[in-house]
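Dear support,

I submitted the protein below through the web form. The confirmation email said the job was done, but the results page showed an empty box. After a refresh the structure appeared. I'm attaching both so you can tell me whether what I see now is the final result or a partial one.
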Amino acid sequence: MRVVIAPDSFKGTIDAASAAAALAEGWLAARPGDEVVCLPLADGGEGTVAVLAAAAEDSVWHEAVVSGPGSARVTARWLELPGAVHVIELASAAGLPQLPAPDPLGAHTAGVGQLLRLALDAGARRIVLGLGGSASTDGGTGALTALGARFLDAGQRELPPGGGALIRLASADLSGLRPPPPGGLTCLTDVRAPLLGPNGAAVVFAPQKGATAQQVIDLEQGLAKLAVVLRGDPAAPGAGAAGGTGYGLAAAWGAQLRPGSAEIARIAGLDTALTGAGLVITGEGRYDQTSGDGKVVGAVIAAAVTAGVPAALVAGLIGGPPGPGLSRAVTLAGLAGDPAAAMADPARWLRQAGRELAGSANLADPQPLA
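What the results page shows now:
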């Protein structure tokens, strides 16, 4: 049988490629005669570039020192795919772990704009930007400033970096903004949030970046002013991704916002891999009711249903009944005895999960395993 193993990372414990390899090892220990294809995936957040590098044989790495999300500089890498397609992770230059302490009002995306500019200098015909893992809520103004835009207060003074300054925003000068590449910019979003409102960038995600209740209000007001100045569509799904960076780049630079998991699965060749497969195994750290909305697991299950291939799930924990399209489900916590044990040695329990699935008498029987 041909088996495709296409998980996301199990965030905080093991990356997608290592998870796929462990599942494959377990499967082959039980069924050594099967053909196993590992296709690690991502949703536009951290790990996106590594996944695409593994899927493209002729990729080239670039590296540069750019501004981090605070005052320090960071070394960031990005990937060039055949056809002069450059792939950048926002988190490589503006990720939350790059700050010594959260700075919800001052964190910015300037380094992301510097990477976009460097990709243009390197001859990019098209740029793909993964928006997950952001430290900031600046609406992408830091990135746009690095590309030549100017964001001004009522006295025509340039605002300092960070989302906290946007509450004083009065106008924007885009006359010096460098044009996007000929093939445009595609932003891969790991959330479908709008820019504003109770489900938006500030209210939902700024507290995760250290914002107090009052700071959330200030950031929301600043993003609302940005929406007035740049116009665009603040209600677009994904506009709130990466602290509103999706909105800023779409409104000022014409970026296309796309669900990251589906786009990365397309680039990585999931549909082709499923041709002739007898089973696809996907997975993530925690499966719940949100897993089907823009996440890797949902994209894989949808592709499997279209291809007529049974799908199995391996998750650290399952927070609700597995949805339609799944034939089997295994939890690492169930195999290990508790979540802490599973997180302490995820590769071991992923190998065990692979063996459990391979030993199933009937993979089409939708009875979850422990």
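Response: this is the final, complete result; the empty box was a page-load delay. The first helix runs from residue 16 to 30.
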